[in-house]
Write a structure and sequence with these properties.
mainly alpha, Growth Hormone, Chain: A, single chain, globular
Length: 430
Amino acid sequence: MTTETFGPLAPLQNPNFRLLLAGFAIGQMLMPLQFITQILWVQSTAPRDVWLILVAFIATSRGLGALAFGLYGGALADRFNRQRLLLLMQFLQILTTLAIAGLMYFSIAGWIGFTVFFVLTFLSSGLQSIDAPTRLAIVPDVLGPNLTPAGMSLNQVAGQVAMPLAMMVTGLTIDLLGFSGAYAVTVVGHLLAIILIGLMQYQASTLSSRQLDQSYGLAQIKTDIKVGLRYASGHPVVLWIIILLVLMMSLGYPATASLGPTWVTTVVGVPIHRMGFVVMFWGIGSLTAALILARFSNIVHRGAVIGLGAVLFCVGFVILVFSKQEINLMIGNFGLGAGMTTLMVSSTILIQHIVPNEIRGRIMSLFQLNMAFAQLMTMPVALLGQWFTLAVVFPILSYATFAIVVGVLLTQPQIIRAKIHLTRPGHPQT
């Protein structure tokens, strides 16, 4: 029997969580630095008549990698020591990072160079798709059920502070070190993450010795995946949250994130030097929502908060694509960031609370698949944008996203009604 202190900063009292949080923040800084560097390198080296398609294929490669490895990642996270799995993923990501930096350094472009580049991007995304559900699954192991909501909110705060900082320094880093140097710098981040994760005093007591020690092959992996899929399909709240995210992100993410900067600069006509200032409001919205969620981390009506986040994202999307003024772009980006953060944090907390530990990794990998589908949709959206113009396609996508969100929330009220249950301070934790 233990008692715990509630509060937005309570998880920071746990030294293992502090190490995990620092590693997560570093990871959030690495992603935009690598992604933006990839985009700018392809833009600078690709033929002019296909550069937009090749830029879109970056997201496609990342989506395919996440889709191919994601479910396996969750199964591995439930079967093996999660700390060791995180360490292995960081080491393998160092190898893929150095390989991509080498391509950039030796200016290996052309069709052979781009093919190798996209294969490496596919593999790197696959490794990240194993890393992500493992990180999500390990948080309750470290904090316990009561402090997990506050811990996830702090994760989001750290991420929303780290990502804008990374975006701000990316251009300067490329100017100073070139594409290859900027990409290679991210190796330092992976090394720091290895050190931080390695320092954690993590006990894998929640996983049975049978799970950890037995020979584990492809057949067992497929069986574990089927168990996760069976659980999700039989739990209406978990199933429909995942469906909502997949549908919503497949339509909304390509326009607002992957091709959002293109919309701002080419359709609205915001100068490139001011684009960063406009897009920054996405980060401001995300940070604002994350701080509010951290402050009120003991909210039990998480389903209602999920619905609020989804609607707020849709409102931001509509404002973004139906405005031709910078102030409206800022408001739209703020709504997108705040809605996305509210939706993702609360969905993660609710699913982690519902799902038993022994299959948590597999369910979190299903949860992460929404980003895989979102990235895969970037190519079709880019092609439609070339055929019909982005000015025609993006408003249609915004209305479709809004309609889907409202439709799911109205027809699946169990999402809105879903709650988490916390042990109050002074009461025994079960």
